[in-house]
Design brief:
The chain has a 5-stranded parallel sheet with strand order 3-2-4-1-5, with helices on both faces. It has one domain. With 146 residues, the protein is of the alpha/beta class. It is globular and about 40 Å long. It has 7 helices and 5 strands, in the order E-H-E-H-E-H-H-H-H-E-H-E. InterPro entries: DUF488. It comes from Marinobacter fuscus. This is DUF488 domain-containing protein.
Length: 146
């Protein structure tokens, strides 16, 4: 099953939606905690939902259960928590939430996880895919778009 991930930072709208179109993304799965921030530009929830439908024929779904808690995220952003501890806490959180049971496989098929980070290396969207590959029956072939 193909799945993609993308971050909206360091991309203009043209590049972002070109990635979505070329990858034939069926559903953009927003895994951000805050999807209405003024800093999100074209990636704010309502605008993004409209642009995806009109420009790409894609659906939009917000799944905050695939996002870290505010406490975990803020500690990492402030530099109070190193990446390794952030990763450990987030993996434990996904386990507690049983995301492998709650996320519908059909949603992931040609889906794309959205977050803000430009690259996936230090972003929770990569951790979500890796977790699902390890703890679910799914065999996700991931491609990070950046």
């Amino acid at each position: 099953m193909k799945i993609y991930t993308i971050g909206f930072t360091q991309k203009n709208a043209e590049k972002f939606f070109k990635f979505i179109n070329l990858s034939q993304v069926k559903t953009l799965i927003d895994v951000r905690l805050n999807n209405v921030s003024q800093l999100s530009g074209f990636a704010k929830r309502d605008d993004l939902k409209f642009f995806l439908k009109e420009l790409c024929g894609s659906e939009y779904v917000h799944l905050p259960e695939l996002a870290p808690t505010k406490d975990i995220l803020n500690a990492y952003k402030k530099g109070d928590m190193p990446w390794q501890l952030y990763e450990e806490k987030f993996l434990n959180l996904m386990s507690q939430r049983n995301i492998e049971r709650s996320v519908r496989p059909a949603l992931l098929d040609h889906g794309c996880l959205l977050c803000s980070e430009h690259e996936p290396h230090f972003c929770h969207r990569r951790l979500v895919v890796e977790y699902l590959n390890e703890y679910s029956e799914l065999d996700l072939e991931v491609k990070h778009l950046y």
